[in-house]
Design brief:
The complex is a heterodimer of chains A (171) and B (528). Chain A is of the alpha/beta class. Helices cover 40% and strands 13% of the residues of chain A. A five-stranded parallel beta sheet of chain A has the order 2-1-3-4-5, with helices on both faces. Chain B has helices at residues 7-16, 42-52, 104-115, 212-215, 221-228, 236-250, 257-285, 289-310, 330-355, 358-364, 372-378, 382-387, 394-397, 418-442, 493-503, 512-519, 523-527, and strands at residues 21-25, 33-37, 55-63, 67-76, 79-88, 93-94, 118-119, 171-176, 188-194, 197-204, 319-320, 323-324, 460-466, 471-478, 484-490. Classes of the chains: A alpha/beta (171), B alpha+beta (528).
């Protein structure tokens, strides 16, 4: 236990001083996100992530949003376990045909008003996989999409910018 | 011990079984040895190989207009053997290897769904990769199937898939997925449980099937490398290298030494990134959030370093046919070395905490055990195999440059539990840091990429790369215009996924996440 405490104290809080990316960027965007979320979502934007067939590269970067550097929960962004609890869907991948119905059902299960964010190049336009016998391509071919976050995969900062665009885009 | 000194013994064994080897070729798929046999002998050849002790490492079909060529890869003492036969496309039936190799089950069903080749005595006739996106009578890898072929309406959910049921008082069925609660890939798990005790777990994958094998057809080498980098994003360097290695071997292209070292540095960085992230996630799955935060911090530092030095957090698309597309300078080399020293120090501290924490010990020791016997039967790979007593590692058993000049330590434990899998991963991180330091100190000057030859006609090649999950085998065949005719990447997850079903037996439903994370199969890598 002492070792754990020592480690915690020695490392300190790293959330505020991300060393190599533009720290001002993260804070600035984060604060904007927080303002909008406070105003429109009662302080908590609930996101359900749906992998509709991605290569898992996007998942790695979305997971990174929760690491102590980004710690997006401090801005009011929260990943939830069910679409029924969600304000927004963060959808990755070209939509595989095998996930087509599952994605539609997930969309239907999400209460209105809802935002759909197509995340990653494949989700935006089909990416490397395009449309085929196995892939529906872009997410917008399957469900209505509000915001696109391109990139292969998008960096955590790009993801946060996309989430900001999504929450401010809603009338 | 020299390479293939056992082969004559196996050939004699095949002869005793009256299995006729039509031709043997040591060069065509080098370093693998190619044996062409009659289709009638296919099953018995598998049986003989199993009796001899070969590991079964995969099967892929290559349908042409009038026949289906079938290849099975075997491994013994680090040497690879490819069995090949051809089946008339009008009567696409072949004996199965599954009766002798449990790990062959899903790959043979994948071949059945994709190429329309049935395996006669396969114990499980159910579909695997195919859900409802194309009909039972159509086979995507056949030449008469267009890549653009698509259903007119929404592809329905695969609700009719016949899961195996457990009957009895108090047995309840728990369906999970394909949309999971966490930020992970799609797949379905069907638990049969009494209370919390798992009686049976059945996986249903294929949700992330993107037609990778089909859309590869017609690509040029650079385009294939990009696609290979997206077979499984967490293994992007490993899969791209395996595809490039297969293409380069097919045309006997020598990759410059500097490029090989840069590839190796990137693949070891990928190994460290995934291992450290998973160590944290495994601890988090038993409620030890401290380790998740610490490992998440180390992983993020690591990814940013990759961004700084190479220009991409996951180092995607830097391995290209013939070499690499990036370089590093001496300042970056010095930075990386200093960073490795720092990382080692941090890991020492953290592993000390993991090793000395009674509540972790209580949750991870004896949880999710995989016996060596079961691991061997499935041909389990990577850290899952090493934690269960299997010492195979391509970097050690069949080292490709630059691994032929360094010592790769293969950590092996016998316990086969979640704790052993963590230990293997931590050992592999230390070894990866050592290897990278050696290369950073000795990296030769020179070109970064060899020129791709202009005339490539029907060449074929095979790549063997140890990714962070374990051995990746990639087969590539070119058409007569130098474009891809067949691409098959075999991710290690093909064998580690079925082992997870056995790992969970006798465990409780709430321990599924930690067991699953300790294996961490790729959905995308096996769904293709």
């Amino acid at each position: 236990m002492l070792k754990i405490l020592k480690k915690i104290i020695c490392v300190g809080t790293i959330t505020e001083k991300a060393p190599t990316i533009n720290n001002a960027d993260l804070d600035e965007i984060g604060i904007q996100v927080k303002r909008v979320i406070d105003r429109r979502y009662g302080g908590n934007l609930a996101i359900r992530e749906v992998d509709a067939g991605s290569c898992n590269g996007c998942e790695l970067e979305i997971q990174a949003l929760n690491n102590p550097y980004y710690d997006v929960e401090r801005f009011g962004v929260n990943f939830v376990a069910s679409p029924r609890h969600a304000d927004a869907l963060l959808v990755t991948g070209p939509v595989s045909r095998h996930m087509e119905t599952a994605l539609k059902r997930t969309f239907q299960a999400t209460p209105e008003p809802k935002i759909v964010i197509a995340t990653g190049q494949c989700a935006c336009d089909g990416g490397e996989f395009g449309e085929s016998y196995a892939s529906c391509g872009a997410v917008s071919n399957v469900i209505p999409v509000d915001v696109l976050i391109p990139g292969c995969p998008p960096t955590p900062l790009a993801l946060l910018k996309g989430i900001l665009a999504a929450v401010t885009s809603q009338k | 011990m020299s390479r293939f000194d056992w082969l004559s013994e196996l050939l004699a064994l095949l002869q005793d079984e009256h299995i006729l080897v039509q031709s043997g070729n040591a060069l065509k798929l080098a370093p693998a040895h190619l044996l062409e046999i009659d289709m009638e002998d296919w099953g018995r050849a598998g049986e003989a190989a199993a009796n001899y002790g070969c590991r079964w490492a995969g099967v892929w079909a290559d349908p042409r207009d009038d026949e289906i060529e079938v290849n099975a890869c075997l491994e013994f003492q680090g040497d690879y053997l490819v069995l090949r036969t051809a089946v008339d496309i009008a009567t696409p039936l072949l004996p199965s290897h599954t009766p002798y190799y449990m790990g062959a089950d899903r790959l043979e069903r994948h071949v059945q769904d994709m190429a329309g080749l049935a395996f006669g005595d396969h114990p499980d006739a159910r579909r695997w990769t195919r859900h409802q996106a194309w009909s039972e009578e159509r086979f995507p890898l056949r030449n008469d199937f267009s890549v653009a072929e698509k259903p007119e309406e929404t592809t329905p959910a695969d609700t009719e898939y016949p899961f195996a049921k457990v009957q009895g008082a108090g047995v309840n069925e728990i369906p999970v997925g394909p949309v999971h609660a966490g930020i992970i890939e799609p797949g379905h798990f069907r638990f049969q449980a009494v209370g919390e005790d798992i009686l049976q777990l059945e996986e249903r994958l294929g949700y992330a099937h993107k037609g990778i094998e089909k859309i590869a057809v017609g690509r040029d080498p650079a385009e294939l490398a990009r696609l290979a980098g997206r077979v499984s994003g967490d293994s992007t360097v490993a899969h791209t290298w395996a595809a490039c290695q297969a293409m380069e071997r097919s045309v006997r292209l020598n990759v410059p030494a500097r490029a090989l070292m840069l590839r190796a540095i990137m693949i070891e960085r990928e190994r460290v990134a995934n291992h450290i992230g998973d160590v944290g996630a495994i601890c988090n799955d038993v409620g030890f959030a401290f380790m998740m935060a610490q490992c998440g911090r180390l992983r993020e530092d690591w990814q940013r370093r990759s961004q700084n030095v190479f220009g991409h957090r996951l180092m995607m698309d830097f391995v290209v046919p013939g070499g690499v597309s990036i370089d590093i300078d001496n300042i970056q080399i010095a930075k990386l070395k200093a960073n490795h020293a720092e990382f080692r120090k941090e890991l020492n501290e953290l592993y000390d905490i993991i090793d000395d924490n009674p509540s972790l010990e209580d949750r991870l020791l004896t949880t999710g055990r995989l016996t060596q016997e079961t691991a061997r039967k499935f041909g389990v790979l990577g850290y899952v195999g090493k934690a269960s007593g299997l010492d195979f590692d391509v970097r050690h058993s069949n080292p490709y440059p630059p691994y032929n000049k360094v010592e790769v330590k293969v950590p092996v434990y016998e316990d086969g539990d979640v704790a052993a899998r963590i230990r293997v991963r931590v050992d592999e991180i230390y070894n990866a840091l050592d290897l990278m330091d050696q290369w950073l100190s000795s990296i030769p000057e020179g070109p970064l990429c060899a020129d791709w030859p202009t005339s490539v006609n029907g060449n074929e090649g095979i790549g063997f790369i140890e990714g962070w999950r374990g051995e990746i085998i990639t087969y590539v065949r070119f058409d007569n215009n130098g474009r891809i005719a067949r691409f098959f990447p075999r991710d290690p997850s093909w064998f580690n996924w079925p082992a997870l079903e056995k790992i969970l037996l006798g465990n409780i439903v709430p321990d599924f996440p930690v067991c699953n994370k300790s294996v961490n199969g790729s959905y995308s890598g096996q769904d293709l």
